[in-house]
Design a protein that fits this description.
6-stranded mixed beta sheet; 7-stranded mixed beta sheet; Phosphatase 2c, domain 1; alpha+beta; elongated; Beta-Lactamase; single chain
């Protein structure tokens, strides 16, 4: 098509009526425009004239950028940037011959609503192939654009909302998705109980409730918008609070939602609302709340949506969306989009609320099951710390324990149950109770871990027998085929360093004797402890690595180490040293350096250790137990060897009475002589030499009689006519506690008495 032909009147050619192609061009319902390669208009059809609101004489020979310069021309209502981009694309196509497409969203002259247009720029070539013009066609694809925008927004919501199980973070995700692509201002107000995991009442909220501003944001870069965004990202304790109170707003009650306000109506009915400036509902609200009214006028409020946050027939709060300034009001379709967005976010918020409730319950249970304060004992000075894992991981099953034993000894325990949540906390409680029970029997560390291993195996067997649905522990039933390559070792299997089974745990058990200044330790798949010696040197104890609890069939080994008074022993779970931010060796170096700089305050030492190793929120729970060893003075212990002759029982009584007199414990002489007489007599009659008598004065008076026989006595009730068999019964009645402990050299029978008050 040549420029000469383009100057002909639209209805006729030089030799009569216009050809069919010309009439098709003029009558096409698709707006057409023909421009020279430099961008100046050559031809325009009737549809484009109606769209532009101008006739061809006004348009011909002009650039698109000149179309809106006449003040009385309707087309000047279109944003000038559209014409500038169109001129650029015409010239680009005229220079390169490559077709281009422009998608724009504008309100054309005379139209009530903004439409989406797809403008195509196509090169027009002559018979010789030379580019002579550029054709423009404009297609209204408002419906397709809206559908595409809707799908894009919903897709963004699907991928962008709910990545975290934190209520506040999920609310922020909703705000980030909707501002500024859908609304200019969005606020998310949730029930106060949602942040604590509480279960709201089902259905709408007809009564007074307390709301907390979970998140808010406004588009723009002015200082006030930045301040709004900063307020939206405050911590939970600083979140804006809103109180929705049905009824009249009292004087000075700023921040409340009156009964007739759109947010209150949304909460009360459970239905969304769409409002525009001038609506009676908005004007009434702003008249009652002058602060909000001033905000709306200052920012040019155009339209407002209120959408209830409803999940599983439960209302969790309300979302308010506003359009400001020159934005178009919300349409009915956009109200539906907002409802879909909030509905998706509501499910995510409810999931976060449920997780918060479970995590809070697990944390409460975990803390209640842990030792609240170390018991009174003289063997060690203790400091303990427990740090739960990050929100995503959930509460684990780490625990620590300090258990006083006979002979002023103390047991130090740290353990870790695999998994997280309530199951791990309950399992931890069962294992901790078992450890305390076995420790009370005074078992050596390796034997105690063997019994604990049997317990975990039986718990796994019990869970497998009932099945995952009935047991609540999850996992397959007993007898399920193990993973490929796994070596079957009972109900659980060990594969690639992981324990397969419903329950698994690790444990470190240590017994410290302040008289001998020695510790006996054994571990079951647990990290080795660290010790800072009195000279400041830090080392990791070489404790043989036993298998994790629950495998069965493998032995544990006890190692004895000397720990001088003033040594600092550090027992911990793997959450302290395992991190994706550093390797294990670096963690151990940090731990050693933190202990090397240890002071006298153990709480400060624990803070230093945690500060060095948990700069990032730990992915797993952390249990830390610090124990500084002590020793009993020579004036607190008396020890004698007794010859295996019944005649020496009286001498043993005299030795004990003389020692009590030195300690000023004359009130305990009678009972102590009775206990010594019975225990030494039993050792002479039923045990084997050597026989030793030891008295220990600490928080209680302890009497111990040792011999080399492994046969342990047992308490029984003697018959009426029997002359013997009442010795241990008398000891049990006179002493506060009594018991037996075994060693490699034999056994020790001990009995404790409370010291008289000073």
């Amino acid at each position: 098509m040549s420029a000469a032909r383009s100057e002909e009147p639209p209805g006729e050619g030089p030799s009569g009526p216009a050809p069919l192609s010309e009439r098709a061009f003029e009558q096409s319902p698709v707006p057409w425009m023909l421009c020279a390669p430099d961008g100046r208009l050559l031809r325009i059809n009737e549809a484009m004239k109606r769209l532009a609101g101008l006739w061809e004489g006004e348009l011909r020979g002009r650039l698109p950028t000149e179309l809106g310069q006449d003040d009385d021309a309707p087309i000047n209502q279109v944003d000038s940037s559209v014409f500038e981009e169109s001129t650029r694309l015409i010239r680009e196509v005229g220079a390169t011959g490559v077709p281009q497409t422009l998608e724009t969203y504008v309100q054309v002259p005379g139209a009530l609503e903004t439409h989406a247009w797809e403008v195509r720029y196509t090169p027009v070539r002559g018979a010789d192939g030379e580019l002579e013009a550029v054709a423009l066609t404009a297609v209204d694809f408002t419906e397709q654009f809206a559908a595409r925008q809707r799908l894009g927004l919903l897709n963004a919501a699907t991928t962008g909302i709910g990545a975290s199980l934190d209520v506040t973070r999920t609310a922020r995700d909703l705000v980030d998705v909707t501002v500024p692509v859908f609304a200019d201002f969005v606020s998310v107000d949730l029930l106060d109980g949602v942040f604590h995991g509480e279960e709201p009442a089902a259905g709408p909220l007809p009564g007074p409730v307390l709301l907390r501003r979970a998140a808010q944001a406004r588009s723009g870069t002015d200082p006030e918008a930045a301040q709004d965004d900063a307020a939206a990202r405050q911590t939970d304790t600083d979140l804006v609070r809103e109180r929705y109170t049905p009824g009249v707003v009292e004087e000075g009650e700023r921040g409340s939602y009156p009964l007739d306000s759109p947010p209150a109506r949304c909460l009360a009915t459970g239905r969304s609302g769409r409002y525009a400036v001038g609506d009676l509902e908005l004007e009434s609200w702003f008249a009652a709340d002058t602060a909000r009214g001033a905000w709306a006028r200052r920012h040019g409020l155009v339209s407002l949506l209120t959408v209830p946050v409803t999940a599983r027939e439960t209302t969790l709060g309300v979302v308010i969306l506003c359009r400001l300034g020159a934005a178009a009001p919300f349409t009915a379709d956009e109200q539906s989009i907002a409802e879909e967005l909030v509905a998706h976010a509501a499910i995510c918020l409810d999931n976060a609320r449920r997780y918060t409730r479970e995590r809070t319950t697990a944390l409460t249970l975990q803390h209640s099951l842990l030792q609240q304060r170390p018991p009174r004992q003289a063997a060690v000075e203790v400091a303990t710390r427990y740090v739960p894992a990050s929100g995503q991981a959930g509460v684990g099953g780490d625990w620590y324990d300090v258990i006083p034993l006979s002979g002023t000894r103390v047991a130090l325990v740290v353990g870790d149950v695999t998994g997280h949540g309530l199951q791990a906390s309950v399992t931890m409680a069962r294992l901790r109770t078992a450890v305390r029970t076995l420790a009370d029997v005074d078992l050596p560390p390796d034997e105690l871990l063997s019994h604990l291993d049997d317990l975990v195996i039986s718990l796994n067997a019990e869970a497998g027998a009932y099945g995952p649905e009935d047991s609540g522990f999850g996992g397959g039933a007993l007898g399920t085929d193990p993973p490929p390559g796994a070596s079957v070792l009972g109900p659980s299997a060990f594969f690639d360093g992981q324990v397969f089974g419903d329950i698994g745990a690790t444990c470190l058990y240590a017994v410290y004797d302040p008289i001998a200044c020695r510790a006996a330790l054994a571990r079951a798949g647990h990290p080795v402890p660290a010790v800072r010696l009195p000279n400041g040197e830090v080392e990791f104890l070489d404790v043989p690595a036993g298998p994790p609890l629950g495998l069965g069939g493998l032995a544990f080994e006890t190692v004895d180490v000397e720990l001088p008074a003033g040594s600092l022993l550090a027992l911990f779970t793997d959450g302290l040293i395992e991190s994706r931010h550093r390797d294990l060796d670096e963690s151990l170096r940090l731990l050693a350096s933190s202990l090397a700089a240890a002071g006298t305050d153990l709480l400060a030492v624990s803070e230093r250790v945690l500060g060095a190793l948990t700069r990032h929120r730990p992915e797993d729970d952390v249990a830390l137990l610090l124990a500084r060893t002590r020793t009993l003075g020579a004036d607190q212990v008396a020890d004698w060897e007794i010859t295996a002759d019944p005649a020496n029982v009286a001498e043993a009584r005299r030795l004990a009475a003389r020692q009590l007199a030195r300690w000023g414990l004359d009130e305990l002489v009678f009972v102590t002589e009775l206990v010594v007489s019975e225990l030494v007599t039993n050792a002479i009659r039923h045990g084997r030499p050597p026989i030793r008598l030891r008295l220990i004065r600490d928080s209680a008076l302890t009497c111990e009689v040792s011999d080399s026989s492994s046969t342990a006595p047992h308490l029984r009730r003697a018959r009426t006519m029997e002359e013997g068999g009442r010795g241990l019964m008398l000891v049990a009645q006179c002493a506060t506690r009594w018991g037996t402990r075994h060693s490699a050299d034999g056994k020790t029978i001990w009995a404790e008495q409370a010291l008289p008050p000073h």
